[in-house]
Amino acid sequence: MRYSLIVRIGLLGAVITGAAAEASAQVQERVYPPAAPNAADTTARDKQQFANPSVLGMGPSKGLIVRYERMPRFGVSSSAQVQGLNDFNTDATKNARLSIKGYIPAWNHPHLKVIVGLSYEREEFQFDKLPTSYELYDNIENKGLKSTAAQIAIIRPVDDVHWYLARVKGELSGDYTSSQLSRSDYSRFSAEAIYGWKRSPNFSWGVGFQYGYTFGRLSIYPAVIYNRTFNSHWGIEALAPARITARYNVNESSILYAGYTVDGYNYIVHLSRDPLERRNSDGSVDRSKAPLNTLELRETEVKFRLRWEREIFSFLWLGAEGGYRYNYAFDAFDRTNADREKIIDSKFNGAPYASLELFITPPRKLLEKSGVRR
């Protein structure tokens, strides 16, 4: 069923890509820094000797990012998938996310770039009529679902046409606290590798794979990078099927984006009440399976979004984003027994969302001194 989502998203990406090409307008969301120079910057173009995924006209590099996202009230429905649980409906009165990310160029040479990233993300829920008397919701009510991660990204240009990109990420994800933290419980791992071609300063693309939780559960799937600038205003940035974004450069200090993104989250949630016991069809306790003290929560959503990035100072930018979120899954799984059976199938109603973001970039004067302009 997850793979049917990938197919549908891929078809949606193809439609968006085709329509944008006809309008001579498109682009993707940059995968990694560095900043790309403006299309009018022939000096930076002439000096380019090594290929990379970036193209002219893409937004500035992001060194430190602080983002807050919020959704209004929306309906939630859960359907029990095992004996001994009930179905349940309620409203979520709050769903908010805070994320802080930082990227450091540990090695920055034309033939090799190594970027170290650190991040902290926290998601919070509040539900109507507490306690809800439902195990899952009462356990995540007002409890931070956190993800603390470190990653290394490597961009290895081969020559002026070919390039490699690889990323490895390790994280701790769940409702842990410092006193409860168990690395074996909460640890997660993801990776990606892509081989690409820089056809011109305005066009770069590549193919490879991603291995991670973008679609809720740990899986491997193909990935295609497509970065293209069509003229001084329009471009497209894609890491399909996970996201496709059209870009419009208003000027060197203002950029508009429109597109979609697929986001996946995977949390370990500890049950604070008595362990959840699996039951047989006659209601008796299933002694062949261990009681559950934890659940694996898999969340997958598709966002259709509009975004505006604006320079405030030479080193500080503001990002404002809004759109509509479609929730594909919010499911709880048995992570104790070998069958890894789905325990609860939940759905969130679609809802609008909004976010604000501040991010620090290399100062404009520093880039100009080095011969690079945004």
Helix content: 10-25%
Specify the CATH class: Mainly Beta
Q: Encode the helix/strand succession as letters.
A: HHEEEEHEEHEEEEEEEEEEH
Kindly identify the CATH topology. Porin
The gross shape turns out to be elongated
Fold topology:
Elements: H1 2-22, H2 42-47, E1 64-71, E2 74-80, E3 88-109, E4 112-127, H3 135-140, E5 145-157, E6 162-174, H4 183-186, E7 187-200, E8 203-212, E9 219-229, E10 234-240, E11 243-251, E12 254-270, E13 294-311, E14 316-334, E15 342-348, E16 351-360, H5 364-369
Antiparallel strand pairs: 1-3, 1-16, 2-3, 2-15, 3-4, 4-5, 5-6, 6-7, 7-8, 8-9, 9-10, 10-11, 11-12, 12-13, 13-14, 14-15, 14-16
Describe the structure.
This is DUF6268 domain-containing protein. Keywords: Signal. It comes from Hymenobacter negativus. InterPro entries: DUF6268. It is a single chain. With about 375 residues, the protein is mainly beta. The protein has one domain: Porin. Helix content is about 10%, strand content about 55%. It has a 16-stranded antiparallel beta sheet that branches. Strand 3 (about 90-110) and strand 4 (about 110-125) form a beta hairpin. It is elongated and about 70 Å long. Mean pLDDT is about 85; it is low at about 1-45 and about 370-374.
